[in-house]
Design a protein that fits this description.
heterodimer; A: 341 residues; eight-stranded mixed β-sheet; 10 helices; 52% helix; B: alpha+beta; 9% strand; disordered C terminus
Chain lengths: 341, 460
């Protein structure tokens, strides 16, 4: 049979009633004839359009008068002008096994590269564009929210001691260009226990429990130096931006699964976040060790306080892909190594 | 002369009897007016009862019939017509199931088939995902069309597949608008917080518009047998349904502006909304179905708020034993695992199981309730999803997706879709020629895309 001339079985729909009429569709050289029970209609082949290919599904040939004909997919239908021209090449890729295999490889490479280089780089350039005033109002608000929701209350440490820590803190950061904007805040927190953390907008919070746990001035300085490291690298803001971007990509990739299982969609974001968090901690450690050394404080003090924190919690924190901080033993070893240098 | 139109039929009847009794011979003008009014009202009631009879006997639509009879009961209390209507409603109650069952025969059933395969959809999915990533999201509009087209084209009703008609360019435009609005929302919720109340206010004003545009877009670009669906809901109708006449956005915006001084006031309003929620869902579904049209016929939705309430209440009860289990487990292992980060993961297992069961129960029963109560002209639906089936489906989907690092997502999509199709039956109580099409107009994709972007699904 001539590949340009063929007859396909079809179902004809007039566009007025959803009633199907069985027809035969004869594809001629320049003409298509649709033959039903009662009559035959003829159209110029150039006046017809066909719906895009979708798997093995039937396709629809549209006639100029608004009627349509459902036909099984056949190569001859590609002779007609396509309803959505841009879908043709995509449909071809979809039907090609090698295209699927290549897609898997390309996606894997893109996700890995994006994760290792892309996301940090984009975050970096976005964070640079956030004005410090915006970051500061964000930080103040977070501080306010934490206070309101009962995470901590007024400090109970002796004001003299607090003053001494403030003076130490100022000395520690005096050479940093942004030092005047740093804010060190003291709070009592039974909920969090011994803890210190940095908020966006150059705010550092240290809890009474942490101050009490420390046995020397140096240990408090070591903790503060670590938090200054977070601030200098704008880690809090980066975490917010990075987690939002990661969530965006993860949503795009797993969108189709979201309705099937919420936990599945969330999992990759959590794992990604933990990994970045470990990197941030390591960077803050590095910064802290150098800063401490510049001020003639041994980074070993950091190891001491970390050791005491762990002892208090009863067991070493497991260092795994689920944890947000690097394994403590690792951090202590690095701190002591810096101390010896 | 007095105006009798303000009296009820019962009052008119009594007046007539009274005058007749007091003065049997009188043929006054009052009496003539009263009797004219009585016969006008009676024929109104009779008309409604006739429509109800037709709806039940000819169209096999008991719910529609009951709706008209209830109207008679409401508008003509204490009359013979009301008594007739009540009697008829009782009769329908007895015969209804039999009537529906008698229609659920093979000759009335429209065969519904889903011919998609996991393998084919995987190829569609992976190629489109790859192109979306490579083009940094621009291609996502094409990806959406391709995926929807594949699913529609493989959903075959009575030998003819559904058609997805949207083209990528309007969707891309819609996505750009949605992305801009999302960025506005994101930056105001994270960085420029003083703007947030204004952004939320704008959102509240836009929400009904987004809803009607989104449903409209999905309807107008979905077709079956060369007839597109249509949606005729208006902004104000959507505003009324979506926001309970503006109360809900008023409350939300009020919170962000700090209008509600006492926290207990806000808590009471929030509790009120939790209780109102099933009726709210019902109203949204009713709005969606009643304004959806196919071939000149509008859909009709008969479910009651009470039936939605029962489903949500049971789903809530399901979570209780799992909550207790979580508590007991936490008590049992707390001592030995104190301070360990694994404690959190162990405790989340029963909590997650409770969530899955409650979610599956809700999905199965809301879907069943919704479809059972939809009629589109002569077409009616029957859906029988089972909670345990869905639990198994969700669990195996999640396991497969995790183990395959996401590569089994398309497989999960197809088997979930197939389960739903295989447990849905479509019947007709009359010929399809009752549907008659007209020309369709196009609608912008912006509304539809906003809904996608904010993950706010109002579809059935």
């Amino acid at each position: 049979m001539n590949p340009l001339q063929q007859t396909l079985p079809g179902r004809f729909f007039d566009g007025v009633h959803p009633v199907s009429q069985p027809v035969g569709v004869d594809f001629g050289l320049d003409e298509v004839a649709v033959t039903g029970d009662e009559s035959t209609r003829r159209w110029e082949i150039s006046a017809l359009t066909v719906s895009p290919k979708a798997g093995r599904a039937d396709r629809f040939v549209a006639f100029p008068d608004g009627s349509q004909c459902q036909c099984p997919d056949d190569p001859i239908l590609d002779r007609l002008s396509q309803e959505v021209a841009s879908e043709g090449p995509v449909a071809w890729l979809e039907s090609n096994v090698w295209a699927a295999a290549a897609s898997v490889a390309i996606i894997a490479v893109m996700l890995v590269l994006g994760y290792v280089y892309g996301l940090p780089a984009v975050t970096e350039s976005l964070v640079k564009r956030v004005p410090i005033s915006t970051e500061m109002s964000l930080g103040s608000r977070m501080l306010e929210t934490l206070g309101k929701s009962g995470w901590f209350d007024v400090t109970r440490i002796d004001p003299e001691k607090l003053r001494a820590i403030q003076i130490d803190f100022r000395t520690l950061c005096q050479d940093l260009p942004n030092a005047p904007h740093f804010r060190l805040v003291f709070h009592n927190s039974k909920v969090m226990g011994p803890n210190a953390f940095a908020l966006p907008g150059r705010i550092i919070i240290i809890t009474d429990q942490m101050i009490e746990l420390a046995q020397t001035r140096e240990e408090i300085l070591a903790i503060l130096a670590h938090e200054i490291g977070h601030i200098e690298h704008r880690h809090s803001l980066r975490t917010i931006v990075q987690s939002s971007l990661a969530a965006l990509v993860a949503t795009a990739v797993t969108a189709d699964a979201a309705s099937l299982s919420a936990a599945v969609a969330g999992a990759p974001v959590i794992l990604i976040q933990k990994k970045y968090s470990r990197q941030f901690e390591a960077a803050a450690d590095e910064f802290a060790f150098n800063l401490l050394r510049d001020h003639n404080v041994s980074p070993a003090a950091f190891a001491d306080i970390m050791e005491r924190l762990d002892a208090r919690e009863g067991r070493a924190r497991p260092g795994s892909f689920l944890s947000s901080h690097p394994a403590t033993a690792d951090r202590m070893r690095r701190a002591r190594a810096y101390g010896r240098r | 002369l007095s105006d009798y139109s303000k009296y009820t039929l019962k009052q008119l009847n009594e007046k007539y009897q009274k005058i007749r009794k007091e003065n049997p011979a009188e043929e006054g003008e009052d009496l003539a007016l009263i009797s004219a009014e009585i016969s006008k009202r009676s024929s109104e009631a009779a008309g409604l009862i006739r429509i109800a009879t037709d709806a039940f006997e000819m169209e096999h639509n008991p719910d529609l019939s009951i709706r008209f009879l209830k109207q008679v009961e409401r508008e003509f209390p204490g009359t013979r017509e009301q008594a007739d209507a009540s009697k008829f409603i009782k009769r329908i109650g007895i015969e209804k199931d039999h009537k529906i069952d008698s229609l659920k025969k093979s000759e009335n059933q429209l065969e519904l088939e889903f011919s998609a395969t996991g393998r084919e959809y995987f190829q569609v999915w992976i190629v489109n995902l790859c192109l979306t990533l490579v083009t940094l999201g621009v291609f996502s509009a094409w990806a959406k069309v391709r995926k929807k087209r594949y699913l529609y084209s493989n959903l075959i009703l009575d030998g003819t597949p559904f058609q997805y008609l949207a083209s990528p360019m309007p969707i891309l435009r819609g996505r750009l608008v949605a992305a801009a609005l999302f960025l506005l929302y994101y930056s105001s919720s994270h960085f420029y917080v003083s703007l947030l109340p204004y952004v939320l206010s704008i959102g509240a004003i836009l929400a009904p518009w987004v809803m009607i545009r989104s449903i409209g877009f999905n309807c107008r670009y979905s077709a079956y047998r060369n007839l597109a669906f249509d949606f005729r809901g208006t902004y104000f109708q959507a505003l009324k349904v979506l926001s309970a006449w503006g109360l809900i956005p008023g409350y939300v915006v009020g919170i962000s502006f700090g209008f509600w001084g006492a926290p207990w006031l806000g808590a009471i309003i929030a509790l009120g909304f939790v209780i109102y929620f099933p009726w709210w869902m019902k109203n949204i579904k009713t709005f969606t179905v009643n304004h959806t049209r196919y071939g000149g016929q509008a859909g009709a939705f008969y479910a009651t708020g009470g039936s939605f309430f029962r489903v949500y209440a049971v789903a809530g009860l399901i979570t209780i034993p799992f909550g207790i289990l979580t508590g007991l487990l936490g008590f049992a292992v707390f001592g030995s695992l104190k301070g360990s980060p694994y404690l959190h993961y162990i405790l989340s297992v029963p909590a997650y199981a409770g969530y899955v069961f409650a979610y599956a129960y809700m999905q199965a029963n809301i879907t069943n309730t919704v479809w059972k109560n939809i009629r589109l002209g002569p077409v009616f639906f029957h859906c029988r999803l089972k909670t345990m089936d869905l639990v198994k489906l969700y669990m195996t989907n999640a396991a497969g997706i995790i183990v395959s690092a996401g590569l089994l997502i398309p497989w999960a999509v197809i088997r979930t879709f197939r389960y739903r199709v295989e447990h849905t039956r479509i019947y007709r109580s009359g010929p399809m020629t009752g549907f008659e099409g007209d020309r369709r107009g196009s609608v912008s994709a912006a509304g539809a895309e906003l809904v996608d972007f904010f993950d706010f699904d109002v579809s059935l």
